Structure formats: structure tokens, C-alpha cells
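Q: I have 81 residues here and want to know how they pack in 3D. Can you give me a structure?
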Amino acid sequence: MWTVYIARCADDSLYTGIARDVDERIESHNAGRGAKYTRSRLPIELVYSEVVDDRATALRREFAIKRLERDAKKKLIESCR
């Protein structure tokens, strides 16, 4: 199983990624070992996650989410609360 996730950075930007263990991945980001984008925007918090069956599906979903405008991402985040 893979998870597609959105994290809110300290500067209020949104970062989208995939991981097998999303909690471990968020910890890595917050320890400064995550993506280059998040290293200068710490701390981050998980605001959305979606479990999918395989890596290929996760990558396609990540790409689709990254193409959304910010307002659409906010609606997606709100839909899971």
C-alpha cells in the first residue's frame, strides 16, 4: 500500500508527495531529511492523505493533485476532515 499526502508547510504552502509509511515520511521531513522544498519551510504538518494500492497509482494521483490549483487543493483537504 502507498499513501498520497499533502503537507502544509510553515509558510502556508502545500507540498504533495507519496510514501509507504506517511508518518515516518512526515518525521523525515521535519527532521530536515525530506524533500529539498520542505527543508526551508519547517515544520510541516500532514493535512491530507489517501491510500492507494500501488506505486504507479500513487504517482499518477500525486501528479494529478500537483496540477490542481490551490483552491482545489484546499477543497480536497477540507473534504477529508
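Q: Anything worth noting?
A: The CA atoms of residues 21 and 66 lie 20 Å apart. The first strand starts at residue 2 and ends at 8.
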